Amino acid sequence: MRKKIRICASVMAAVCFISMTACGGSGTGEESPVPTESQIVQPTKEAEDGSGDVDKDTQGEDPTGGEDETLENLQPSRVPVVTAPDVTYEAEDGTLTGRAKTASTKKGFSGTGYVDGFEEEGDSCTFHVDIAQEGFYDLKFVTASQGGHKENYILVDGESLGSLTSESGEFETSTFERVYLTVGAHEVSFSKSWGWVMLDSLTVSAAEGLPDDLYTVSAKLVNPNATENAKRLMSYLTDIYGKQFLSGQYSSNMYGLERAAVWRVTGEYPAVLGLDMMEYSPSRVANGGTTQAVESAIEYWDQGGIVTFVWHWNAPEKYLTGVWYSGFYKEHTDIDLKKIMDGDDPEGYDLLIRDIDAIAEQLKRLQDAGVPVLWRPLHEASGGWFWWGNAGAEAYKELYVLLYDRLTNHHGLNNLIWVWNGQSADWYPGDDYVDIIGEDIYPGERVYTSQIKKYLEASEYTKERKMIVLSENGCLFDPDMAIRDGAMWGFFATWSGEFVLANSKINRLSEKYTEEEMVKKVYAHDAVITYSELPDLKNYPIRD
Ligand SMILES: [Ca+2]
User: Which of 94, 157, 349, 473 is the most exposed place for a label (fewest CB within 10 A)?
Assistant: First the structure.
């Protein structure tokens, strides 16, 4: 069965508003949220000449597209487990740059000392590692913090692998799991991000194989009353999990510039459209905030796409102390979640319920239209930059469960697939409230590594296997590296604005975070599902 969908050019132009939000610790979030006239987008090339029309195949007979044989080949390669013995390299024997210097005052080190003085950008210590057997290795760094939680960069041969965390004032091991190393010489660098650590040594040891059941997840949703369409969507996600990645992109709406920019260079649209409930927060509505996010989600689902919603929950008016449209950041509100959850601010509790009920109305519109939602509220909590993450894990978990209960049991919202995005085991609310685990990762500019470390960490938040997704990303990852490493993110969802757009008013791709060649590679990759490759989700078979 073939189905052709036409997008009306005039509608496309009329509803193109700029996406104005940014997210988390890496976002900007300070721009005016109300689109001005100058932000109304002019018709783009494909809108004018109709080249933006979407052809969409559906595969009614075989919803997986009959590619099972190919899929088998795409499963993370079972690279043989390395058998080489551990080798330890002392930091004091490494190559130091900038202010990094050897020291021996603090006891507990191995070798003849350690390295400190990581103070300025560029301060680093490089270990020269020799590898005799190709495969995956764990890099075990021994560090001591010079004052609480610290994060610093790890690079292998100049490629960033992400951040290494040091917590203790005593020398302790922090492991970077599953780093792929070829035979020969490699440079492993510890480079200043936050600085203020003492680096003692690096031990390179053979990594264990991945757990056999890493991608074996249930399609059963935590809400026993989940709608058919929610079950169908989760069944599809489960079927492709461990084999393929769904492409995703945050954008202000279906015709947003971010999607158009991806299409312009790849000829493909993302399978998942990322949207925000932010403007439905009562304190934004009161200030004139408007959005068409729900309408757009309905249209996208109707046209065969998948939608995910985050909620930048703008705190109730009475707690806003800074810029009203930044009222989800802790700095712009004096709301005390612990006080509210402890029963010491009953008015605050009522206001939170009022806000939840306002969002429930919007989610209800989606449910009434048959739209299942990959629902990601209270995100990035453990980072502490949002007010819901600023009062500790316990208050957050109480709020998460309250939100789940209110939406599910009070409002009867059964179209939600719950994507938990607290990003720390201590903040996990329990298996009964989570369908999918999301990690948001902004590794820097043009860092295409798989982020396997975060993937494996997320897999250990719970004993029951849950699907793991990259719920927000800055740059894209290289699918070949992810498959090799086993970082089989169920979907990715690139954040909006500067992460994709070179200019906030036209659909020109920015190469700051991801180069055009990599965007093309990702969207053309056999293991990446684009919008045009989605099956007919409204008739997809429901798995147990
Ligand atoms: Ca040492």
Answer: 157
Residue of 90, 258, 299, 472 with catalytic role = 472
Mean pLDDT for the chain overall = 88
Q: Which CATH architecture has domain 87-206?
A: Sandwich (2.60)
CA 142 / ligand 1 centre spacing (Å) = 8
The verdict on whether 299 is a catalytic residue reads no
Can you give the pTM of this predicted structure? 0.83
* All CATH 2.60.120.260 domain ranges in the chain, comma separated: 87-206
Q: How far is the CA of 503 from the centre of ligand 1 (A)?
A: 48
Active-site residue identified among 90, 380, 439, 533: 380
pLDDT at residue 319 is higher than 60: yes
* d(CA 443, ligand 1 centre) in Å: 28
Q: Which long-range contacts (CB under 8 A, 24 or more apart) does 15-18 make?
A: 15/253, 15/255, 15/292, 15/296, 16/40, 16/41, 16/44, 16/252, 16/253, 16/255, 16/256, 16/257, 17/41, 17/252, 17/253, 17/256, 17/292, 18/252, 18/257, 18/504, 18/505
The class (CATH top level) of 217-538 is alpha beta
Binned at pLDDT 50, 70 and 90, residue 431 comes out as very high
Distances (CA, A) of 25 to 67, 477, 532: 39, 20, 33
The pLDDT score that the predictor gives to residue 76 is 60
Average confidence (pLDDT) over 208-217:
93
Does the active-site annotation cover 394? no
